[in-house]
Amino acid sequence: MGKARGQPDVLKGHYTMGARPMTHLSHKTPGPMPYAARLTVREACQARGLSVYQVAMSGYATGTVDPGTVYRLARGDTGRIDLETLATVAGIIHTLSGQPVAVAELLALEALDSDRGSNAQVHGDKSSHLSAGTNAQ
After folding, report:
1. DSSP letters spanning 45-100
2. Nearest CA to 108 among 81, 84, 88?
3. Angle value at C-alpha 90, between 87 and 95, nearest 5 degrees
4. Are strands 35-39 and 129-131 parallel, antiparallel or unpaired?
5. Residue 45 region, left (φ>0) first, then alpha (ψ -120 to 50), else beta?
6. Residues of 23-60 as b/e, b for ≥16 C-beta within 10 angstroms?
7. Is there a contact between 111 and 43 (Cβ–Cβ < 8 Å)?
8. 3-state SS assignment for residue 4
9. Helix, strand or coil, per DSSP, at residue 137
10. pLDDT in tens, the chain (137 residues)
11. Could you say which DSSP state residue 104 is in?
12. Does the pTM of the predicted model rise above 0.85?
């Protein structure tokens, strides 16, 4: 990657010195790589020897999260993810297992094949797939 004026080759000729695009980014430039987000809450529970039921009931008992919400996250049956809710579920898993939980253990971002649409399932499982740029709860 050679640099001219601090810009990578891929950006050379596309931006002015003031970092403004010389052309509209959707014109004459390739589109973004299509990605899908997949919830992996169930896998994070299983990796720690926990059931989704244990996590759901612990959240219910402490009044921090509704069991239905935990089950929807585990099934991937959601189009939006609330970050506070995801953090609460991570905290419950951590409390029950004694092991810290990273965001990457609860949510995976995977590239889609170029011939598939943005809503295509990456592995053909029942996990939720959110197209890039989509808000989630």
Report:
1. HHHTT--HHHHHHHHHHHTSS-HHHHHHHHHT--S---HHHHHHHHHHHHHHHSS-
2. 81
3. 125
4. antiparallel
5. alpha
6. eeeeeeeeeeebbbbbbbbbebbeebebebebbbebbe
7. no
8. strand
9. coil
10. 444 456 566 655 555 666 665 555 555 556 667 888 899 999 999 999 999 999 999 999 999 999 999 999 999 988 888 999 999 999 999 999 999 999 999 999 888 875 544 444 444 344 444 444 444 44
11. G
12. no
CB 95 within 8 A of CB 64: no
Rounded CA separation 92/56 (Å): 9
Residues 6+ apart with CB under 8 A from 15: 7, 21, 22
| Amino acid letter for position 107 | L
